[in-house]
Amino acid sequence: MDFLNIQFSSVEVLAADGSVLSHNAPTNATTGQQVDGGGQPPLEFAGMGLVWVAIYTVLIAFMWATIFRPQKKRAQKLQELRNNIKIGDSVVTAGGLYGKVVDIGTDVYVLEFGTNRGVRIPVNKSEIADVKEPDLTPPKEKEA
């Protein structure tokens, strides 16, 4: 059967009460005979739906393993780091400011910035990027 040579022609059917019903039936363009396709795809394409489902499943699993899982692990590690901060720790904020924790509130840390020990600023816990001492050593001069 040649699926490329199918053409649709109008077929009129008489109903029991004498009215005319029209029905489009596929016919072969070369022979003019009706083809019983029923609107179904050829059998060679029947398994393609399962192939695409398998491809999408593999794609989603790959994305989960390479993107979402490591990101979730990093966020969990950062949350654990923030929960283990205690008074006296040196921290760096998400904006890059170094400070020392002097008080801990419910959702804020009170940080002391700079050498002027009177500057105390409350910082949201989610803004702490790392527990880290600032590197205050002067850079070595290049030799000529």
Range of strand content: 25-35%
Radius of gyration: 37 Å
Q: How far is the first residue's CA from the last residue's CA?
A: 87 Å
- Name the structural class: alpha+beta
Give the beta-strand count: 7
Query: Tell me about the biggest sheet?
Result: 5 strands, antiparallel
Helix segment tally: 1
Class of the domain at 85-131 in CATH?
Mainly Beta
CATH architecture of the domain at 85-131: Roll
Query: Secondary-structure element order, as H and E?
Result: EEHEEEEE
Proportion in helices: 25-40%
What fold name goes in the CATH topology slot of the domain at 85-131?
A: SH3 type barrels
Biggest β-sheet: strands ordered side by side in the sheet: 6-5-4-3-7
* Low-confidence regions: none
Q: What is the 3D shape?
A: elongated
Write down the overall mean pLDDT. 77
Account of the protein in words:
The chain has 144 residues and is an alpha+beta fold. Among the domains are: 3-39, no CATH class; 85-131, SH3 type barrels (Roll), CATH 2.30.30. It is 25% helix and 31% strand. It has one helix at 48-83, and strands spanning 6-14, 20-28, 90-93, 98-104, 108-113, 120-124, 128-131. It has a five-stranded antiparallel sheet with strand order 6-5-4-3-7, with helices on one face. The longest helix is centred in the middle third of the chain and has 36 residues, at 48-83. The radius of gyration is 37 Å and the shape is elongated. The mean pLDDT is 77.
